[in-house]
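To the wet lab folks,

You asked to see what we're planning to order before we commit. Fair enough. Below is the target structure as tokens, and below that is the sequence we designed to fit it. If anything looks off to you, flag it before the synthesis order goes out.
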């Protein structure tokens, strides 16, 4: 076909509204194979649980299986990197947590990806705030009393975390900045051993994700002084937020969100978003997530992208101000 005939045919198709057919067909055909959802942590953990809860309804809505693949290691970096370098056709997504997206970039000197450039935000799935608790018998019954004790004993009170650079660690560093206190960090290999040492009184303070402490709070074995969400938790309506308790700007969450590699066509992102939002609206899924202390989000890609930039800047400030370094 010569150039003149090709131009004429293209113009005719456009006039009939048919030039958009290949693009429309592409959108309608998606997905045309199973969707791989990488979970960058070991099976059985919180991220794996969330992925399995939402994948059930997403599979129904997409008409193709959503296959969960565990790619644990390096605090979530390995799994996220695998998706950042995958084909951007919408069939490869990751359920990432805040650490690998907005915290580790400020701590790792050689990040394998640029979280703001190499990934396509789809939706924030869940926000999980921390519960602020203290060792039994320590004394403080409120956040204000804890802050007063910490100021009276600089460097004497220790707070535990799930490891250097974890969201629990960053919550403690944020408290130091926002409340103006000097407390000592004690890292653990996960939240569970930190809870054990809090119960034994070997550390005095722990800000742990709600699922790690909610059982102890309900049983009365550990107190809940505050929650670090912007609003009170539905499962702990009588526990004030840290901000309400007099610590301005003390908002910290471990969040989970769906992302893909950069360059996924917008119409395919919309399909994935609709499936994820349907999962979060499902009553069975919603109840399971809320019961763990989660805050269901389901934001738009644009809102999620803005949230990532905002929290990326917040934790960058915390790292620079406190001088936190990976050891």
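Sequence we intend to order:
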């Amino acid at each position: 076909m010569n150039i003149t005939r090709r131009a004429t045919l293209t113009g005719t198709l456009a006039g009939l509204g048919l030039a958009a057919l290949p693009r429309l067909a592409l959108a309608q055909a998606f997905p045309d194979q199973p969707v791989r959802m990488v979970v960058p942590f070991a099976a059985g953990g919180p991220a794996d649980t969330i992925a399995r809860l939402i994948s059930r309804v997403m599979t129904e809505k997409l008409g193709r299986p959503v296959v969960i693949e565990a790619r644990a290691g390096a605090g979530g970096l390995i799994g996220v990197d695998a998706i950042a370098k995958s084909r951007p056709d919408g069939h490869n997504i990751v359920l990432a947590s805040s650490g690998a997206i907005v915290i580790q970039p400020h701590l790792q000197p050689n990040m394998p990806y640029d979280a703001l450039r190499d990934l396509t935000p789809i939706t924030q799935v869940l926000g999980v705030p921390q519960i602020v608790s203290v060792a039994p018998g320590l004394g403080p019954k409120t956040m204000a009393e804890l802050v007063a004790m910490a100021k009276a004993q600089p460097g004497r009170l220790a707070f535990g975390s799930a490891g250097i650079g974890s969201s629990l660690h960053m919550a403690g560093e944020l408290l130091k900045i926002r409340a103006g206190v000097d407390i000592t960090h004690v890292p653990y290999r996960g939240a569970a051993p930190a809870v054990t040492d809090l119960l034994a009184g070997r550390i005095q303070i722990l800000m742990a994700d709600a699922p790690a402490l909610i059982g102890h709070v309900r049983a009365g074995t550990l107190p809940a002084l505050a929650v670090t969400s912007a609003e009170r938790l539905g499962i702990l309506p009588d526990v004030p937020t840290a901000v309400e308790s007099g610590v301005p700007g003390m908002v910290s969450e471990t969040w989970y969100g769906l992302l893909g590699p950069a360059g996924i066509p917008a119409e395919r992102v919309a399909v994935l978003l609709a499936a994820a939002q349907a999962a979060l609206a499902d009553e069975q899924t919603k109840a399971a997530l809320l019961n763990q202390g989660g805050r269901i989000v389901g934001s738009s890609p644009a809102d999620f992208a803005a949230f990532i930039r905002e929290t990326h800047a917040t934790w960058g400030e915390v790292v620079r101000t406190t001088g936190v370094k990976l050891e």
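Structural context that might help your review: The chain has a mean pLDDT of 90. The radius of gyration is 23 Å.

Thanks,
Computational group
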